[in-house]
Design brief:
Length: 293
């Protein structure tokens, strides 16, 4: 019997430990989870630490300090001077010259009042560092051999962006630039316009001379469009333009040198013309073999 008693006692202790019945077993600290309202990884009980502003993902410890009147990096200082590091020497030189700086160092505070930059034909391949120019509304980057345009994702104030002849093929980085009104992407290697589908303020788009581009579907829901340039592309159907009910009187489309199908030539173009859309240089897009009703 004593042996059985000892076995029962041992079993009881094991059950007690499993159920955390000892003092302090109910430790509420282990139940606390990270509260991160803005999704930046910082917040209450988060592994990365506390956030000084949990309503903005751009504000957290270690964030890029912009010249915007906000303590972006949670160090208790606002718009403190931070050196901007450029991966591309040509970009650094171009900005120093554009801002007429008398030194060889660029700081975030140099961008405080900069709303436009013309950086065309500068031999730039990397845009790293340009994200500090947060107030830009106009940026021209044509004729640069760009390899990475991801820093542009931070420039939410952009209203006009020109990336002609830069060799780009993927526009996913631009999907969040919903304030854009004018976008020039001519002479590249684009295959999809899907990332532009949320740009409801876009009134002018130039995607001409992109032979790899064949689908205009993302343009059907952009009801602010007034000028569309798609000449010398791989377009066969312009039904997405016909489906864009806002295209009408005074708007213009240039689409010559595309191999358009019968419906585009004989149904959609006449219908758009009846709505007042002007087709520029209207030759070279419909086969002479088509006999429209």
């Amino acid at each position: 019997m004593k042996g059985i008693g000892r076995q029962l006692l041992a079993l009881g202790l094991m059950v007690c430990l499993a159920l955390a019945c000892s003092d302090g077993g109910d430790d509420s600290d282990h139940d606390e989870s990270c509260v991160d309202n803005d999704g930046d990884g910082y917040g209450q009980n988060c592994d990365l630490g506390q956030d000084c502003n949990d309503s903005s993902a751009a504000v957290h410890p270690g964030a890029m300090e912009l010249c915007d009147g906000i303590d972006n990096n949670c160090d208790g200082q606002t718009d403190e001077q931070v050196e901007v590091v450029f991966a591309d020497y040509n970009l650094k030189v171009a900005i120093i010259n554009r801002l007429s700086l008398a030194r060889n160092t660029v700081y975030n505070t140099d961008f405080c009042q900069v709303t436009s930059l013309d950086l065309r034909n500068k031999g730039i391949s990397s845009l790293s560092g340009i994200e500090y120019a947060w107030a830009l509304s106009v940026l021209l980057l044509d004729n640069n051999p760009l390899t990475d345009i991801s820093p542009l994702a931070s420039l939410k104030a952009l209203a006009m962006l020109s990336l002609g002849s830069t060799g780009i093929y993927d526009l996913s980085t631009l999907s969040g630039l919903t304030n854009l009104e004018m976008l020039f992407l001519n002479d590249n290697f684009l295959t999809s316009l899907a990332p532009l589908s949320a740009m409801k303020s876009l009134n002018t788009i130039d995607v001409s001379h992109n032979l790899t581009l064949s689908d205009l579907s993302p343009l059907s829901g952009l009801h602010s469009l007034q000028s569309i340039f798609v000449q010398y592309d791989g377009i066969t159907s312009i039904k997405p333009l016909y489906d864009n009910s806002s295209l009408g009187a005074g708007d213009q489309v240039e689409l010559h040198h595309n191999n358009l199908d019968f419906d585009s030539c004989c149904i959609y173009i006449p219908a758009l013309q009846a709505r007042g859309v002007n087709f520029l240089n209207d030759d070279g897009y419909c086969s002479a073999a088509y006999t429209c009703p």
